[in-house]
Give the backbone structure.
Amino acid sequence: MATTIYVISTQRFSGKTALCVGLLNWFQRQGFAVGYMKPISTAARAIHNQIVDEDAVFIKTTFNLPDPLEIMTPILLTDQEVEAVLDGADVQDFETRALGAYHAVARDKDIMVFEGGASLLEGWIINLAPPHLSKMLGTNELVVVPYIGSLQVVDDLLTARLRLGKSMLGGVINSVPKNRLSFVQEKIKAFVERHDIPILAILPKDQVLMSVSVEELRDGLGGEVLCARHALNELVEHLMVGAMSAESALTYFRRESNMAVVTGGDRPDIQLAALETSTRCLILTGNLRPSPLIIGRAEERGVPIILTHHDTLTAIEVIENFFGKTRFHQEKKVRHFEELLDKYLDFGALCKALEISTKPIKSGI
């Protein structure tokens, strides 16, 4: 039978998908046959006339997995499904669906990685919240907790242990600010491990992983791309606002790299200054189109210009809500996170907890 790791989180935007990708990559590199499931998806949407979960699509493509999407994500809790449950649909059908999909995907795998939902509560409506689903399928849980504050991290880990019990492999504390790393390592890790919660990784907050693609900014702003469409996959790590004098602009923009510059469409001086620095995209507010000279220069530099109807303040608010809350679907992020896991995650301790050898032993169900 395949060994299954159920990656669960206690908060939204905790890094579950990133951790799933990192685990799949590491075990695949060791020679294991790997599989992936997201038993319950509450974020499915229509793509090419098919309702799918984007994380599952991304992982299936990244690892060239043969399993059909409909069994990798057997339960899509759309508004229609929720309404059916509220109207009295038999929830046992969901359990049967999840169990059947698991056996189908895990049949020829050594390692299965499950991706959980947004919290330990998600799925109770159909009696498939993580504690019950894990017990039903016999999985072991790895709980990823984002660092928001010291009290929150400890409480989240203790709560997870209480709800999951002895099947919990341990915790991964993610996105820890550099100035709190030693505290988390020396104080929090020691405390929770005294409560029988092994900490398998403490991952630092990372600018690349917090970044957002130019395309995501375009979508969030509802903007129009005026040039350099080939660069929409570029990652933006910083946000700069061009509201100063032209003389100060170059010095200001040179403080950061890989940035998006937000300025008015009527500020060609700021726009030209931004194009001379490490700018990944120009966001022009007020629905004011720039001159052909600016568009030509941006095309030449490979810098997309996004035109938005929002005023500058609103555009900034929209963009700031994106950082750290975007999907983990860019190759640069994937490779970077894999390097972080190799450095910080104790794979030896994980394999020991799973009672598996680092050398794969072919399994079947």
